[in-house]
Design brief:
The protein is α/β, with parallel strands linked by helices. It contains eight helices and 13 strands. The protein has three domains: 54 residues, Nucleic acid-binding proteins (OB fold (Dihydrolipoamide Acetyltransferase, E2P), Beta Barrel), CATH 2.40.50.140; 161 residues, P-loop containing nucleotide triphosphate hydrolases (Rossmann fold, 3-Layer(aba) Sandwich), CATH 3.40.50.300; 61 residues, Ribonucleotide Reductase Protein R1, domain 1, CATH 1.10.40.50. A six-stranded mixed beta sheet has the order 10-9-8-11-13-12, sandwiched between helices. It has a five-stranded mixed barrel with strand order 1-2-3-5-4. β4 and β5 form a beta hairpin.
Length: 306
């Protein structure tokens, strides 16, 4: 192996296979490879890299503040590290899945990352009213919920969203049809060209989309947007089912009223959560649908692992 130069700090802004794109504090970018057979870096990582003759080598990954990821039965998929918030973008049409929304919020809660929900297509009056009604319980839980109309390019909506993002690193999640690409191209007009350049650099000229990409929203490089790949499923196999209720803000306050310290909130007598559900959403804030989501996830996460 060629001699390595003195380690220098950098930020991972894209990753593919064993290679990643690292940005220096001065703003220049170079391709770096991992030392081992497998890359451990994710977008948002602060790293130490050393120069070789033709590229850089990742010497060390600095400690992470957090890591947002999903895990199914087979594999773990990391989105990004060192996040300030996760923006979950959903739309009034097509109708969003509350289960998928809950999964993303639970994953963010687990890593102590602030979630923000944006509901797109406010110009579709009736569908938007229905969808907004479904999100009222989330507002009562303390989550920020913003209306958005990317189609109409309403300045007030975009300004409110930018205000929440200013000076922060935000990962954007969203199902297909929610308007994620439109939002990113609106906030980062050069995003398409940048993605093309990154794909070419990391994939030896092949125009394949890199999985996760970091964009600067402002020239001062203080506000960052991370585009994530679309997904059909969001596995939570890294969540202990016995901790699940602590990651749901509407269930969490009632855990202290449970008779048993290891209550699953599924069938035990003297369960504070079940008592709150029976009392009704208007009194306790637990919607029947949210408790159904809890039960479905608890059963899924309690399945034996092979």
């Amino acid at each position: 192996m060629a001699d390595l130069g003195k380690p220098q700090p950098g930020l991972v802004v894209a990753s593919h296979g064993r290679h990643c794109l690292v940005e220096t504090p001065q703003g220049s970018r170079l391709i770096c490879r991992s030392r081992g057979k497998k890359s451990e870096t994710v977008v948002g990582d602060h790293v130490q890299w050393s120069a070789t003759e033709d590229e850089g080598v990742i010497v060390k990954i600095d400690p992470r503040r957090n890591l947002f990821y999903r895990q199914d039965e087979i594999r773990t998929k990391s989105f990004a590290a060192n996040l300030d918030q996760v923006l979950v973008l959903i739309a009034a049409e097509p109708e969003f899945s509350e289960m998928q929304l809950a999964r993303a919020l639970i994953a963010a809660e687990m890593e102590h990352i602030k979630p923000l929900i944006a509901l797109n297509k406010s110009d579709l009056v009736e569908p938007f009213e229905r969808a907004w009604g479904r999100l009222l319980p989330y507002q009562h839980m303390g989550y920020g919920v913003l209306p958005l109309s990317l189609r109409l390019s309403q300045d007030t909506d975009h300004e409110a969203l930018l205000k929440h993002m200013q000076g922060r690193t935000t990962l954007v999640l969203g199902p297909s049809g929610a308007g994620k690409s439109t939002l990113i191209n609106l906030l980062v007009p050069q995003a398409k060209a940048l993605t093309g350049e990154i794909s070419q650099a990391l994939n030896s000229g092949k125009h394949t989309t890199t999985a996760t990409t970091w964009y600067w929203v402002d020239e001062a490089r203080s506000t960052a947007l991370i585009d994530s790949p679309g997904f059909q499923e969001f596995g939570l196999h890294h969540v202990d089912p016995m901790n699940l209720a602590t990651l749901m803000p509407d269930l969490r306050p009632h855990i202290a009223q449970c008779r048993f310290y290891n209550c699953s909130h599924m069938h035990e007598p003297g369960c504070g959560v079940q008592a709150a559900v029976a009392e009704g959403a208007s009194a306790t804030g637990i919607q029947p649908n949210r408790y159904r989501i809890y039960r479905g996830l608890f059963e899924e996460l309690s399945q034996p692992r092979y």
